[in-house]
Amino acid sequence: MPGKSIFYLLALIASSSYLTYTIVKSKNNDTPKRKKNVADLIGNTPMVRVNSLSEYTGCEIYAKLELANPGGSAKDRVALSVVRHFEEIGELVPGRGDVLFEGTSGSTGISFAMLCNALGYTAHICLPDDTSNEKLQLLESYGAEIEKVKPASIVDPNQYVNAARKGALNLKNDKSTLANGVFANQFENDNNWRAHYATTGPEIWEQMNYDIDYFVTGSGTGGTIAGCSRYLKSVSNKIKVFLADPQGSGMFNRVKYGVMYDCVEKEGTRRRHQVDTLIEGVGLNRITHNFLQGEHCVDDAVRVTDDEAIRMARYLSSNDGLFVGSSSCINAVAAVKIAQNSKPGSKIVMIACDSGTRHLSKFWKEALKIDKNITLEQVLE
Ligand SMILES: Cc1ncc(COP(=O)(O)O)c(C=O)c1O
């Protein structure tokens, strides 16, 4: 009888949607409030226990999922803080045709591109012409103005950061238009570390119920480690901050021994990229203004090889369903190494900076070659 079958079908649909609703609801009691725009979605990212690493080490290892920001990384917070500051001082006014210039081959450009669209500005991103396709396509999809320049040293006036600075100045001085140009300058801009001091740090502290033993992350501009560690040290004197550093970076020696040096800098051994690693976004051979703002809060450093990070990528994806980018993986390796040298039950927080989708063509291409059943012992070999 068709009437009866329709009744059964409707009953089935109703009960399955109720079931889905109760499953989702029971896991998520804090339904986020609706927001006015994308800018309001930035921050308040989730914290998740990394079960495989916690069980193996006997410590509590948690990942702060910065990849859950609307632009896909912690750089959203920095972009918002930089833009709001320019608005406060009248340098950016929505709808006037103002352009924000930044030199970046990383996530920052994507965050600025997203935010500028949402707030009424244009993002002009200068980047090296060998920037990965994933990032270029994302910038193109947001419709950002893209200026590709040849990779060059920071002292070269045509280097991408210097190109961005020059572009902003040219527009600022252009009397034929009302539009203003500003240079975001994430490496030197204090609104970078301050964004993490004001938001990421307090969120971590609250999410961990005011009890953390170790905080670990890498350093690119240094904004995340400086801002978070300054905040965390201001609320607890037991927290130890560790820098996770990729191979080829001089930061490890800077933290450990006060000297910025890596053996790849030996005469005749320098390669095409100053920091020769597959890891993107972290590791440098120069000290940045933002790192300096929190250097006194960084207690120790862990060096992680590319091989360890690649194996960890595969391991986290297979065991925890965490599909993360390269810098998150060095943080995870460092977190395990810290756990192995600390008392059971210690609480360790690492930053999961961005998703693996940003790294498919390079880092994850290598990670896919690893057996998905790899053990943690093999990861750390
Ligand atoms: C993927 C990724 N992870 C980590 C970082 C490092 O963050 P910070 O610049 O705050 O040191 C960056 C910086 O661009 C990044 O792009």
TrEMBL record:
Cell compartments where the protein resides: Mitochondrion outer membrane
Membrane topology: Single-pass membrane protein
Sorted UniProt keywords: Membrane, Mitochondrion, Mitochondrion outer membrane, Transferase, Transmembrane, Transmembrane helix
InterPro entries registered for this protein in UniProt: Cys_Synth/Cystath_Beta-Synth, P-phosphate_BS, TrpB-like_PALP, TrpB-like_PALP_sf
SUPFAM superfamilies, per the entry: Tryptophan synthase beta subunit-like PLP-dependent enzymes (SSF53686)
Needed cofactors: pyridoxal 5'-phosphate
Reaction catalyzed: O-acetyl-L-serine + hydrogen sulfide = L-cysteine + acetate
Enzyme Commission number(s) of this protein: 2.5.1.47
Record GO terms (molecular function): cysteine synthase activity
Presence of the UniProt keyword Oxidoreductase in the record: no
Main location: mitochondrion
GO CC field: mitochondrial outer membrane
Family membership noted in the UniProt record: Belongs to the cysteine synthase/cystathionine beta-synthase family.
This protein's name: cysteine synthase
Species: Pichia californica
